[in-house]
Amino acid sequence: MDAGKPKILVIGAGHGGKAMAADLAIKGFPVRLYNRTYSRIEMIALRGGIDLEFEDGRSAFGPLEMVTSDLGMALEGVNLVMVVVPASAHADIAAQCAPLLEDGQVIILNPGRTGGALEFRRVLRENGCRASVVVAEAQTFVLSSRSTGPAEARLFRSKITVPLAALPSTDTPRALEMARLAYPQFIPARNVLETSLDNMGAVMHPSLMILNAGRIEATRGEFQFYIDGATPGVATVLEQVDAERVAVARALQVRTRSALEWLRAAYASVGDDLFHAIQGTPTYRGVAAPRSLMHRYLFEDVPMSLVPIATIGAQYGVETPTIRAVIQLACVLHRKDYFALGRTPARLGIGGMSVEQLTRYVEGR
Questions:
Q1: Do residues 49 and 22 touch, judged by C-beta distance below 8 A?
Q2: Parts of the chain with a pLDDT under 50
Q3: Residues carrying an active site annotation
Q4: What CATH homologous superfamily does 8-196 map to?
Q5: I need a labelling partner for 34 at 20 to 30 A (CA). Which of 47, 159, 232, 358 fits?
């Protein structure tokens, strides 16, 4: 490691991955970018990096050390692996990484959604990974960003604080040591149950999509997703989804923030209820709605965020009727059984555990 700067691999060249790779490179880190499909990164490879536009109008070029679709080459010799792909791809990434990882590497899921680190660890183990690595998850993505071209991205804003935890939590100090070199706003969470159940995408994304389904299809997303989409009635549903999420966390003896508390911490939002807090979040202004219902806010956030909250809740006797209603409507809209496809306690490797056993597992006791 040179001058305290780790060699970083960013996995994924979507909205978040491109912005993070460029941002880290501009900050002076040696950065590699991996994407499974080379055509998605070919222009970045030809240019040798990514143009990043900032919220204040500044722009800069982030030169990349390597741009590749060869995962083995990308992983060789790196210190920090930032996984920035939809949570539905975490298991596949873990399976591909399992034989390629090296001792001492730190892997951070950005974000883990619900149960990301649990699933990643289980898949590594089942695929014979022998390397001693740290697996951690961020509670949310540290950047608000968009891809604006084949080798261009825009960074709207960085979040003020982002909780992070490793599995087990005895590894959290090591994960934080590496992560904070890149983004000092990472702070420690108690364990991955806290980061998983503090999942605000689960609260915000699916319900907003479903309750604005007609508007999305009629206008092809020509409205502000949060500002226009979160009307007082819609915000009331979001509050109920949030309350059920908090109830599941409470059953696991995990302290999570309400969505209102999270908005204040992440964006310094103001407002006495969720409707007014969303309306008072400057970062949400100008964020366009998805152009289609076939969007990751449903096909990722329902099976990888809401299904695990509902099924973990069921394992510990907590009812989640509003969350289950949102899942069921997503199943109908997409003609898929997300209850069968999503993360469940069995898929996370925690099926049948008591609360005490689960706590010991995630904390390394």
A1: yes
A2: 1
A3: 205, 301
A4: NAD(P)-binding Rossmann-like Domain (3.40.50.720)
A5: 159
